[in-house]
Structure formats: C-alpha cells, structure tokens
Design goal:
Distance between the termini: 7 Å
Radius of gyration: 30 Å
Structural class: mainly alpha
Number of strands: 2
Number of helices: 6
Helix content: over 70%
Strand content: under 5%
Order of helices and strands: HHHEHHEH
C-alpha cells in the first residue's frame, strides 16, 4: 500500500494558560510586597524621584512587553485554529505567522507544502520570536544599568561633599574638641545618608530586572512550546520531495505529486 500523508491534519496547539497564570501570580506578589513595604519604600523613593521614577517607568514598559508577547502568542494559536477550520475570513494573520499565511492562502488549506517551504517558515517564525525577545532583554539590561547609575551618582555626590566636610574640621578660635566632633558627626551623617538614598536606586533597578527577567522566562517557555507544536504540525502537512531541489515552483513535480496522491486514494 501507498502511505498517504494526512492533508487535513488539524493543528494541536495549546494556549499558554499556565504561563499566564505564573506571570499574573508573580506580578500579584510584587504588588502585594510593594503595598506592604510602601511606608518604608516611599521616603527612599522620594529621595531621588527623577532617577527612581524613570526606573519604575522602564519596569512598567518591560512588564507590558512580556504580556504583549503572550497575547501575541494567544492570537497566533487562535488564528491557526480558525484557518484550518476555514473560519478566518477577513482576519489578518499575526506578525509571526505572516509567511505561513501568505503561503497557505495561495496554495489552499488542503494543499501540502514542500520541505523547503516548511523549513523557511520555521526559520522566519523563529527569527520573529527572537526579535520580540530582544525588547525585554534590552529592558532587563537597562534596568541593571540604571541601578548601577544610581550607585555611581551617589558616590559622585557624596565623596566631594565628604572631602569638604573633612576640610571644615579646622578648629576655629575658642572652639572645643566636642564642637568639632559634633560638626564632623553631622556632616558624615548627612553625606552617608544621601549616599544610602542614592544607592537605593541600585536596589530598585536590580529588583525590577529580576521581575522582568522572570516574566520573560515564562513567556519564553510559551513561545518555545508554540514553536515545537508548529514544527510538528508543519511536518504533518509537508510533502516529501523527489529530490533535494524539490520546491514550490516546479509545476511538473507538483503535477506528479498530485497524480501519486490520486493513485493512493484509488488504491
């Protein structure tokens, strides 16, 4: 008998429900921790509002970027399911599946594709997924950089002021040692306190990068599973070529493949 590939193989894709649950859980824990620590965190945040505010803005953008990746993944799964069930009329394909949509719509839903086309589609999807990941990776690095920038800013502002405090310890006429020590204590307390509040941005940036990186990890798991399921589905509708150069442009080879399929149906 001649084995006939299943041309109407239905795609088996799973929605990233588990990844969304984990991401929402992590975000909820972060919000709960911020609410509990708000009385202590707020004075530290207000000590350097411009830099800390920018770090919070970048953190929010990173969180939205990770959830946008998951939403795009959900839309891609729905589009493939609707496409195979012929319910995609008027629906635009997602960005990561644009090559697949262009090929399948020109050849028809029941037409198989060659191994070259399947490999090209997988490479294009992998490249588009990597492009989406680059955004969150850059945001994680940016948060770390902004946190270190806060530390360097604290050192840059504290060290010169500390030198000025030490120079001001020259005793004035009639000034006792106790008064000089009190002046030194006040100056050091003010400068070291300012360094601590400025270095708080480092903690804020590192914590933000940790949260965004964790959300990106869950989103990456969903994307990798989608890629594997897409590869399995494409392999079920891929036509084996007669030679290594079998492509979509060879009309003679396509006609021969259709003839063999008809013979397989009759047998």
């Amino acid at each position: 008998m001649v084995d006939k590939p299943d041309r109407e193989a239905a795609p088996r894709f799973s929605q990233p429900v588990r990844q969304v649950f984990f991401m929402v859980t992590v975000l909820g824990l972060v919000v709960a921790g911020l609410v509990l620590a708000l009385p202590r965190v707020l004075p530290v945040f207000l000590s350097n509002p411009y830099l800390n505010g920018f770090i919070v803005l970048v953190f929010v953008i990173g969180v939205l970027a990770t959830f946008w990746q998951v939403l795009t993944l959900i839309g891609s799964v729905r589009w493939i399911e609707n496409f195979v069930s012929e319910n995609d009329a008027g629906k635009e394909a997602p960005r990561i599946l644009a090559p697949l949509a262009a090929l399948m719509r020109t050849r028809g839903k029941r037409m198989q594709i060659s191994a070259t086309s399947s490999r090209s589609i997988l490479d294009s999807v992998a490249q588009r997924i990597d492009e989406a990941r680059e955004i969150t990776r850059y945001i994680v690095s940016l948060l770390i950089f902004l946190g270190l920038l806060g530390t360097f800013y604290g050192l840059a502002t504290t060290v010169p002021a500390l030198v000025d405090t030490i120079r001001s310890l020259t005793p004035a006429p009639g000034e006792t040692g106790g008064q000089i020590f009190e002046r030194l204590q006040e100056g050091l307390q003010a400068q070291l306190g300012g360094m601590g509040t400025a270095s708080s941005s480092s903690l804020l940036g590192l914590a933000g990068s940790l949260v965004v990186g964790l959300l990106e990890l869950f989103a990456t798991h969903g994307q990798n599973r989608f890629y594997r399921e897409l590869e399995e589905w494409l392999s079920s509708i891929t036509r084996l070529g007669f030679s290594s150069g079998d492509g979509e442009g060879g009309s003679d080879m396509s006609a021969a493949a259709m003839a063999l399929d008809q013979m397989g149906d009759q047998m």
